[in-house]
Design a protein that fits this description.
289 residues, alpha/beta, Metallo-beta-lactamase, Chain A, five-stranded mixed β-sheet, 12 strands, 21% strand, globular
């Protein structure tokens, strides 16, 4: 698939999606400004939906695919930071929702990379649907084949880089948080690409439709407990605002400490997200009664 046909296909996908997807925040689909976060880690997503490129001497790893119309933007961003999309060897996913998986099929077709994703999200990826809301057309995306199915604790290795998969379900059945070592200002740090723990469109309880998927509340509870036991020096997430991308980008000045290094950020995000989850759960339980 060449770039011209990819762009035309993306335009068609946007017209078909219409409805709710067309009403999503404009920044989700707007071209982003690529950024070298540190050493071999780059932001190559849209304006507000994160996609990360991890480069190695033996090829590159891409994490997430943003919106159904985003593949041409991501490919352009990879080129802008000085790399060839053909050198992307592995694609990873945080979770199987259209705003993070929409471009995966096209990215995989163009790069020839293999896709590794969790068992819990494989069905959604390969059917192009949002688990529990399969009938919502605006949540759909182009199906993509999973080449390697990951379990908790599995690692993905390429060119001296090792990424570890941590299953943190709730936001999706196979929500996957990734950790890896990252050199920042000459020092090796622990980086994390957190999946998500927001409730978003999920039904935690429902009198008529039931929960988004069986066991979703227990999954969220276990995920919060797990994340509280983890640490990260560099915290990254699927949405730019979740990790303060704009503020940190502005603070990246010559000679200053890298603003992406903040060992306290993960736990602040987890605490705020857990409080929001509990509020949403109480509200949905009240509505269900």
């Amino acid at each position: 698939m060449n770039l011209k046909s990819l762009i035309l296909g993306a335009a068609g996908a946007l017209m078909v999606a219409g409805g709710a997807q067309a009403q999503m925040p404009p920044g989700w689909s707007a071209p982003g400004e690529p950024l070298q976060i540190a050493d071999n880690l780059y932001y190559v997503g849209t304006q507000t939906i994160a996609v990360f490129l991890i480069t190695t001497p033996e090829g590159h790893i891409l994490v997430d695919g943003a919106m159904p119309t985003s593949a041409p933007l991501i490919l352009a961003a990879i080129r802008e930071v000085g790399f060839d999309p053909a050198d992307v060897k592995v694609i990873l996913n945080t979770h199987a929702h259209f705003d993070h998986t929409g471009g995966l099929a096209d990215l995989k077709a163009v790069t020839g990379a293999t896709l590794a994703a969790s068992a819990g999200d494989r069905g959604a990826l390969e059917s192009g649907t949002y688990v529990g809301s399969e009938e919502v057309e605006s949540f759909a995306f182009k199906p993509v084949a999973v080449d390697r199915v990951l379990e908790d604790g599995d690692t993905v290795e390429l060119g001296g880089m090792t990424l570890t998969a941590h299953l943190t379900p709730g936001h999706s059945p196979g929500c996957t948080t990734w950790t890896f070592p990252l050199v920042v200002d000459g020092q090796t740090r622990q980086a994390m690409i957190y999946c998500s723990t927001s409730v978003a469109a999920n039904r935690l309880v429902s009198a008529d439709k039931g929960p988004q998927y069986p066991g979703i509340v227990a999954d969220y509870e276990q995920t919060f407990a797990r994340l509280k036991s983890m640490s990260a020096d560099v915290f990254l997430a699927p949405h730019a605002e979740q990790f303060g991308l704009a503020t940190k980008r502005a603070a990246m000045t010559e000679g200053a400490a890298n603003p992406f290094v903040d060992p306290t950020e993960l736990q602040k995000v987890v605490a705020a997200s857990e409080a929001a989850f509990r509020a949403a759960l109480a509200k949905q339980q009240e509505a269900a009664q």
